[in-house]
Amino acid sequence: MNWFLLNLIIVILISSSACLNPVIGVIDDRLQQGVGDLVKNLPGQPKVSFKHYAGYVNVNQQNGRSLFYWFYEASTLPEKKPLVLWLNGGPGCSSVGYGATQEIGPFIVDPDGHTLKFNTYAWNQEANMLFLESPVGVGFSYSNITADYDKLGDDFTANDSYAFLQNWFVKFPSYRNRIFYIAGESYAGKYVPELADLILNKNKNSSLFINLKGILLGNPETFDAEDWKGQMDYAWSHAVVSDETHNTIQTSCDFYSNDTWSNKDCKDAVDEVLKQYKEIDIYSLYTPTCSSPATIMLNTNSKMLPRILGGYDPCLDNYATKYYNRPDVQRALHVSSHGIHVKNWTICNHKIFTNWLDSKESVLPIYTRLIGAGMRIWVYSGDTDGRVPVLSTRYSLNTLKLPITKSWRPWYYQKQVGGWFQEYKGLTFATFRGAGHAVPIFNPGGSLAFFSSFLRGESPSSQR
């Protein structure tokens, strides 16, 4: 068979497969997966042996809505390792600016905002890692229709993320049947299970099956009422506020109520907690702050938790912001190839946070469905985080009343206690000792070992 006929057959097969799936819009007609998105000359990048790709996937042709991604192949044997989607929260914060740049990606931005250093504990040692900026308005993701930015909420985000995955698998067909996991932290505690739930529902009818096996969540927002209670109790138990303030919260705040903030005593006491947290880093109680810390945002007109649009070290945010606003970086990541130049890339979009329309009060009913479907669910919590503290997560998970299969015990990394964990029927919960909100920043080696255990479906090491 000559090369012309062979190529013709390949094109016909790809086109035929695409026609079976109505979710997919314009099909990428390139025969090599992601070839146009291959990152070749990223400024300041150290030399690596693996390939990485960045660019856009259209999720709504009519509105020109496109989500930006950055994909790193596993550093060894990518064809044999699973695919993991990582999401940061906010809502409104960038998975590129946080997860990929500060936590688990292979490149960390140096303080000069010009060079990158290699992360020896990058998670792409264990999996192919896909970072997504979602929804539109986050990072480099955009829509041509301004009205889209007024519709953002949990359901909108889940549906766009699902459309992204479907179209991304067309661009990268070799990953279409790969074992797949979703991971994330903070407000992604809602994004991740909501997307997983949508995938399971869509898998029943879609011709493009997604081989989802589980979810991994770090310091996740889970159940608003218990998250609020845990945040207030944690602040008191760690001497951030007085007995009197905590007593007022206990007697006047009903976080299960739809009218929590109409109680002035409650609102004033919660404001006092947040006021004290402005003096330190709510994300990491026992570490220094940057000279220009992020601002605590309190919206007591909604039941959504207040969110600081930042991470462990606000100065890290500054490095990332400087780097991703560079035109040469945007060219290398194929942002400019879409005919745009983002003049004011921000690590978090405050407007998205302020105008968020739809936030589930609890994702625990989704946990129940995922457990019933046999999904692997691991939840971990850095125990020096005041933003979504360990108490919030424990309170939330305890409401599930899951049977304990293995009792509370320490897990170890490099012969030291990394934290404690307990296994339930359908769920594993673990703590990271001395870690703040973005756990991989504080314990990169331990978090990589923990991630590896999750992928293998094995308990964290209980041997010193």
Gist?
The chain has 464 residues and is α/β, with parallel strands linked by helices. It has helices spanning 3-19, 96-103, 154-171, 188-203, 224-237, 243-252, 264-277, 314-324, 327-332, 350-355, 364-372, 390-398, 439-442, 444-456, and strands at 52-60, 65-72, 83-87, 107-109, 116-118, 128-133, 180-185, 212-218, 296-297, 307-308, 376-382, 404-413, 416-424, 427-432.
How is the topology of this model organized?
Layout: H1 3-19, E1 52-60, E2 65-72, E3 83-87, H2 96-103, E4 107-109, E5 116-118, E6 128-133, H3 154-171, E7 180-185, H4 188-203, E8 212-218, H5 224-237, H6 243-252, H7 264-277, E9 296-297, E10 307-308, H8 314-324, H9 327-332, H10 350-355, H11 364-372, E11 376-382, H12 390-398, E12 404-413, E13 416-424, E14 427-432, H13 439-442, H14 444-456
Parallel strand pairs: 3-6, 3-7, 7-8, 8-11, 11-14
Antiparallel strand pairs: 1-2, 2-6, 4-5, 9-10, 12-13, 13-14
